[in-house]
Amino acid sequence: MFRRLLTSSLVMxxxxxxxxMPFANAAAIEFTDTVQAQxxxxxxxxxxxxxxxxxxxxxxxxxxxxxxMDLDDRISSLRYANExxxxxxxxxxxxxxxxxxxxxxxQLQAAKTKYQPLFNTYSALNKQITAAKKLKDKSxxxxxxxxASGMKILVSLGRDDIRTKQAALTAAKKEKxxxxxxxxxxxxxxxxYKSKIKGDKSAISTPNKLMATEWKNFKTAVKANESAxxxxxxxxxxxxxxxxxxxxxxxxxxxxxxESVIARANALLK
Length: 270
Fold this sequence. Notes:
By secondary structure, the protein is mainly α. It contains eight helices and no strands. Helix 5 (98-135) packs antiparallel against helix 6 and helix 7 (189-223) runs antiparallel to helix 8. The longest helix is centred in the middle third of the chain and has 50 residues, at 138-187.
């Protein structure tokens, strides 16, 4: 029993270590009925312009937090869609002009098969001519030369046909390689946006941590009905929330640009 419990604990710890929790600090901020009632009581007690400011600060902060959560969902959905589309695009690269190239390969192979007996016969005939010359058999040599001359045109036409089909295949493969290179070059632009996203995420880390602390300060102040401290805490929360919101918008913008990059790459594959 102890061993099972230990194993279960280790598995759970491992799962928690690999599951990303980018918004752990944000999750600590909950606009419960209690918090909102305490804010209203503190604002009502302050009255006047202070009351108005406190309520506006709190509402603005809630609005920004909702915007951040909405962006989190949109960023997540777009990121997964981009990853799937980029993966599909990369798979399509190997399929560029696949049917066209296969057809040209078949035509080339068919031509080689068609003309090979002719080439074999012509080669054998030339060997016989060489042997007849060595034997100094002029009559046989003349007859074989006449046959070879008649076949030479056909052999030349056959070789030209094969060369033409080989050139077409080579050109098609070269064109495919060029298209693939262009698509890969476009897709490589994604990395620069991913790097920017990484930088934005890193920049969010500090204000996220500070916000958790400021939220505790806010709850302490509002519970004690201290309007000045509540106002100051909300002011700092708004500043931090604004920084996070700006970075979230930036991340979403980068994901949209990645989406555009993938669309441009796919346009070359049509």
